[in-house]
Amino acid sequence: MNCFGFIFAIANLSKLKIKIVMAIIITDECINCGACEPECPNTAIYEGADDWRYNDGTSLDGNVVLPNGKNVDAAEAQEPISDEIYYIVPDKCTECQGFHEEPQCAAVCPVDCCVPDEDVVETEEELLGKQRFMHPED
Ligand code: SF4
Ligand code: SF4
Fold first, then answer.
1. Virtual CA dihedral for 137, 95, 21, 72, nearest 10 degrees?
2. Kind of pairing, strands 114-123 and 20-26?
3. Where are the alpha helices (DSSP H) in the chain?
4. pTM to 2 decimals?
5. 89 within 8 A of 72, measured Cβ to Cβ
6. Of 48, 55, 53, whose CA–CA distance to 87 is shortest?
7. Cα 49 to averaged position of ligand 2 atoms, centre (Å)
8. Could you report the per-residue pLDDT of 81-137, keeping only the tens digit for each?
9. What is the number of alpha carbons within 13 Å of residue 17 lying toward its C-beta?
10. What is residue 136's DSSP assignment?
């Protein structure tokens, strides 16, 4: 989606009073301090070059169909999204919805490089749905 399309979509959703939120992304200004990783309630943050899994820090088990329709093996090691800096898995980030009032990674990052990802726009409802899906017992 280009910039105008993005703004248009946000404006339309605002008219419908749907709260728009986005997953968080770590920019290349990351200094690899590691402060954000233990703060994530969804274990969505990984050190650069580390594999990640859907079942790390969640209740997901075996083959699961994600809320976005993707079919995955929760225990299967997934390729790192970055080899150089800490990264966030968009499928696991809920912008801390259901756990905290604000994104905890952004709150602790000393260089403010945890920012909304304009390529991963979701409604508050969708993010809460992801949170409940990953942590049905909470
Ligand atoms: S916003 Fe919250 S859920 Fe998303 S990566 Fe940061 S700490 Fe994790
Ligand atoms: S807190 Fe910020 S600088 Fe430190 S690892 Fe996380 S994203 Fe990088």
1. -60
2. antiparallel
3. 3-15, 104-108, 124-134
4. 0.86
5. no
6. 48
7. 15
8. 999 999 999 999 999 999 999 999 999 999 999 999 888 888 889 999 999 999 987
9. 0
10. T
Residue among 24, 104, 114 to mutate when testing ligand 2 (max atoms within 8 A of CB): 114
Q: Which residues line the pocket of ligand 2, CB cutoff 6 A?
A: 26, 30-36, 86, 108-109, 111, 113-114
Other Cβ atoms within 10 Å of 64 Cβ, number: 18
Nearest CA owner, ligand 2 atom 4 = 33
Residue with tokens 């088990």: 61
The per-residue pLDDT for 44 is: 97
- Report CA(57)–ligand 2 centroid distance (Å): 19
| Dihedrals phi, psi of 105, to nearest 5 degrees | -65, -45
Collapsed DSSP state (helix, strand, coil) of residue 49: coil
CA atoms within 13 A on the CB side of 29: 10
